[in-house]
Fold each of these.
Amino acid sequence: MPELAEVEYYRRQWLPALGETVSRTHIRPSARVFRNTAPDRIPAAVEGHDFREALAHGKQMLFRFGDDAWLLIRLGMAGKLERGDPAMVPAKHDHLVLFTAKHALAFNDYRMFGSTTLVESAKLPDFWRNLPPMPHEPGFTRDHVGTFLRRRAKAPVKAVLLIQERFPGIGNWMADEVLWRARIHPAYPAGRILGRKLSDLHRSLREVTEDALRVIAPDWSDPPDDWLFNHRWRDGGTCPATGKPLRRETIGGRTTCYSPAHQKWPPGLRRASMDGGT
DNA sequence: CCCCATGTTCGACA
DNA sequence: GTGTCGAACATGGG
């Protein structure tokens, strides 16, 4: 489920336990989510230490315990963070659970595309300090977007928006929402988005990110019906802007939903394989 | 049984 | 180097 806004929601699930001491851990060391780390080290690294920081950036989270233990968590396709009471009994897919006097903090992921990594460091890990700006942050400028689109000039813009090194936190549904709001065809070559269209795309990235955070992060509210979101997977879904039918296609390897009437293919360039559709 | 899924990575190939 | 495609990972839902 998790893109930037859902990740922020999950980070907040663990937040009430900040300042509490980890007294006990439950771990399923054979779970694939530990493939990048040594799970045996986790209990000793966090038990007896206080839960000190909870950070989120794009699709990843970083939690600090005591002076020098950090847990990096990526949720993959189906991962979740949950908070229960200390008597909570770990279920089948609760691969990591941290117990304090008042809470149980669980990392649950039945598909195990997610992962967690123990980082033992007295300071914020370097890779975290060097992360690219998220779309709602000040460094995320129009030029920042334009430069990257030119570097991937021939790729469909939809595929480019999914690249985390430049668009941290943008996933499949947010990318579709962004393009729909900016009225850009998802298969259009990234390098041909210039001038006013580039401004539209940049603005849409900021707005969708800010709106998604506002709506989803506090309590996982449903987005309003004037977003593409509520219409995108329903068979026979219609565009909230035009009332015309939505279309689903695989673009950049992912199922993509767009509104052909709203996101027209600009004149002057033919689509590579499929017909343009206006 | 079939297909699909809000993700990432890797190898093969043009 | 660019870009595309399919497979793999593991599980559940329709």
Amino acid sequence: MTERVTLSQIAKQCGANKSTVSRVLNNRCDASFSVQPQLRDKILRVARQMRYRPNLHAQTLARRQTRLIAVPRLVPSGDSEHVPGIYDAVTSHLVPYFREHGFEVCSTYYDPQHDKTLLPPWGVDGLVVMHRSPSHLIDELEEAAMPYVCVNCPTGPAGHSIQVDDTGGAELALGHLLALGHRRIAYRRFRTHLPPLHSSMIARHDSYLQFLSDHGLKPVKPHDGPWDEPELYLRKIIKAGATAVLAYDHVEAIRLLKASQKAAVRFPQDLSLVCFNDEFPCSMVMPSLTSVALPTAEMGKHAAQILIEQLNGQLTGESPLEYVLPETLVVRQSTVSCTM
Amino acid sequence: MTERVTLSQIAKQCGANKSTVSRVLNNRCDASFSVQPQLRDKILRVARQMRYRPNLHAQTLARRQTRLIAVPRLVPSGDSEHVPGIYDAVTSHLVPYFREHGFEVCSTYYDPQHDKTLLPPWGVDGLVVMHRSPSHLIDELEEAAMPYVCVNCPTGPAGHSIQVDDTGGAELALGHLLALGHRRIAYRRFRTHLPPLHSSMIARHDSYLQFLSDHGLKPVKPHDGPWDEPELYLRKIIKAGATAVLAYDHVEAIRLLKASQKAAVRFPQDLSLVCFNDEFPCSMVMPSLTSVALPTAEMGKHAAQILIEQLNGQLTGESPLEYVLPETLVVRQSTVSCTM
DNA sequence: TGTAACTTAGCAACCGGTTGCTAAAGGGTT
DNA sequence: AACCCTTTAGCAACCGGTTGCTAAGTTACA
């Protein structure tokens, strides 16, 4: 770390004591402290001249609070292509809100392979967790009494969380298809053989089954079990009479789009397509994708709000908050009336 | 900040002095210090039992170094859709490398609207800058003698940097088109009326002009000046006889793809398409995009390497390093032989 | 037995701020 | 002039570690 201007240096310059300088710069003019305008101005001037920037480590040590929020980010393992989820969207809404309230935000990097904690080695006042994390890591947060809020991922027993209503989103999407006359609706699951990485993998699939059952429809196979390559999957569901597909996310949807040529399926004429996650490039592909938008702005804002309240001690004693935010449907070109 | 176990508490538990505990936990057994195995083990055991985690702020203060690297990230302004560049790809390669060398990495958020510095308010040992930043911010880094390395963006007079060879990349792309028989090659500029946000906007365009000129070809208008909507742009270049397009980035390319229907152009039959940035979803759109891949892994690794060497004082006195890394061409479906 | 040399561990200052408490200076009143 | 109150500002301890130096205890050797 490069050497910086310190309080004492400023104090010496001004012929004052560093405690005075500290109080002036922090505007600590309570009943027990005051300065003459003359000295005050001099201190402020000198500090600006010397480009004084307080050492946050020292401040943290003395104040016992950092006003720093960590947002752990998953380090992508291996050389897999970076596929964007909603992390960035939510984070970008989180940051300004925290800043308005005097908190800084930093992303830390959590590598499931190596890291044994979500907590950064430097102190923070709180965390916003956006990835499903091993429960012992969440437990650790609670043991350490570290304020945190989970966004779109499972929380611990005492943790507040922001969830999205995937069931409602699925209903919007499926209702839309139903209204367009579709009766044979398939579900395209997430691209992995691994056990569910995220609760949405279960929620979206379950909601699919529930909705169909509620409306007297039968699921189109395959909707679970082993993962088929896109082309094979399309052939299977077409054979099974599907006229529409609900995809786990935009990436799956885009892969289906791509496989359509080989599988001799035309979107949307032969098959309508809806997906979760209205993120790039949903609006830019051809046909543009009808998709369920997660309320990323709201998620970010509420998460920040809850965490700030926690930090201000306004949420003690209450039972954990769980906000469930609605999703919305953005209709585009990939869904059309059923012609079958 | 929640209260944590401190050195002194451990020391008291062990009936030892905190300095001894500190040295044991940090394995400081130089010539001037040693402990009996018995005490050593006890300290280690108690520390583990009490789940001791050193306070990094205190350590930083005492050691005068943080072993923390900041990677500023642009806060997207307004509600614009998050469009991924290569930031994430590079960062994900940066992190493991730094960690292997004992450094932690955090992303900080830089908001051009409000922030007057790239430096986070807490101390860091160095920065990896990946966004074109106002030059006075870079100057500030140099004045503060803060080690930094710029990746794919302009650096200050004394700053090391990692650049990519956009000219080479353009030559690969254009050479590929040339080999396929294309002679009327258009260039699709970045989607903004603003002055160049990034040097690549100039470099790629210039390289385009240079290559054509070198090979006795004429640019297809419009390749600069006001930005046209994708559809209008396509109509214009088709009218001008274009058989291929080089796009500034994958987002532009995808937008062109989308506009093709309205503009009555077929990719790749009527128009071949190459773009810079081989990122999601280049391989997943239809037709998949022939694209120039930036060496994100290499960029991350070299950036980390240079910064670590700087931090170790191995790079003093030398003139600034500038690594220029080659780009590679990934040929996919969007480019075919010219049939005109 | 005295002493040099080595091992083991503690003292205390320091990193750069913050803050409770106290002291000095200034002003007003009796 | 003595006294009290208020304003102004400094002293010093503290936050939780790190580290140079020193002290106590052991062993080795003359």
